[in-house]
# Entry
Amino acid sequence: MQTILVPTEQHDLTASMLQSALLLARRFDSYVEGFALFPAMVEIYALDSEISLPIEVKEHDAEMAQHARAVFERFMTGQGVPRSSSGAPSLSFDWLADAPDGDAFVGNYGRVFDVIVAGRPGSGRGSRPSLATIEAALFEAGRPVLIAWNCSTEQARATTAAKPLLRKASRVVVLTVQGGSVPGPTGEQLARYLQRNGVSCEAITVSPEGRSTGEAILANAASLKCDLLIKGAYTQSRLRQMIFGGATRHILANATIPVLMAR
# Structure
């Protein structure tokens, strides 16, 4: 199993983010690779000229990338993880020093890894990782980034991707929020499917109690003392979620535990 870690700026390399990646890697003797991600260059054209004028969205700071690498490598070596020296499957790490700029790289490169680990998107302008980074991973990589069950195809993909983790979990709960589902199998039917695949789990259905679906999911995850939330991403369209809000956007903005998402 290969786990890709996507550190961005210095302040995004939090201890919890690194610990989440390492805990996952230890479970499966995974290779972990990190890299520094910066915004891509964009070009505009003067109205009366065919000459392009490159404008940097954000200065590519080599010193910042070096610092991110130092933090990443210091953490891994401090936890006794060896640097990778071969392609053999084992717990190890390395750093990609020449990663191209831009969120598209996350989606493209992530296709040859099993899991993408990134920080929670920031809410401020210019903050990293941006929501576009997370969406690039979800929509382009085809890899996964408490099971919250809403009967959707997206949730089914996330659950399938997470089965190796679920088999190792001490407790699995399939959570359905009333009014937060689309037509499809019930939570009880999903629980039976997982049980037949070696996952011991239970299904519960809760009332939102005046909260949004996203709020209810996070509140129940906290009350159940869950340490991982598995959620299908963007059952509603991104445009609809941007205008009206949605569970995916709420969870991305407010989750305080690791979230595994797939679409």
